[in-house]
Amino acid sequence: MEINLKNNLPLDILFLIRIKANEFKTEGVHDIDASDIKEYLYKIKWKNEETLAMCDVIDDIMSLRFSEVFDYLKVKVIKEASSLNLNDFSELIAK
User: Fold this and answer.
1) Alpha-helical segments (H) within the chain
2) Is 78 exposed, middle or buried (0-12, 13-18, 19+ CB in 10 A)?
3) Residue 4: beta bridge partners?
4) For 39-92, what is each residue's pLDDT tens digit?
5) CB-based burial of residue 25 (10 Å sphere; 0-12 exposed, 13-18 middle, 19+ buried)?
6) Terminus of the chain with fewer CB atoms < 10 Å: N or C?
């Protein structure tokens, strides 16, 4: 069975992504949630894919390590921060 990645993911795949997020939480990684995993999959893992076999989608989710998502989120934050100015960080700067 093929999954069209340009459409909404089937509910069972979304459920599997939530299960993966819960697995990360049981491993002590509380800051990565299902939306972070989904974003990583779409923007990195499946970036150039339009359709994938169901078994490949499941394998991509189940084999995902939190370090992959964490590295993606780290780069995303750095890119976002580079477009800000110093005043945007005033809450973080000690007075």
Assistant:
1) 11-26, 34-40, 54-62, 66-82
2) exposed
3) 51
4) 999 999 999 999 999 999 999 999 999 999 999 999 998 887 777 666 665 666
5) middle
6) C
CA torsion 57-59-61-66 (nearest 10°) is: -150
Name the DSSP letter for residue 48. Answer: T
Long-range contacts of 12-16 (CB under 8 A, 24+ apart): 13/57, 13/58, 13/61, 14/38, 16/58, 16/61, 16/62
Residue 53's φ and ψ, nearest 5 degrees, are -65, 145
pLDDT at 95 over 60: no
CA pair distance 80, 70, nearest whole angstrom: 15
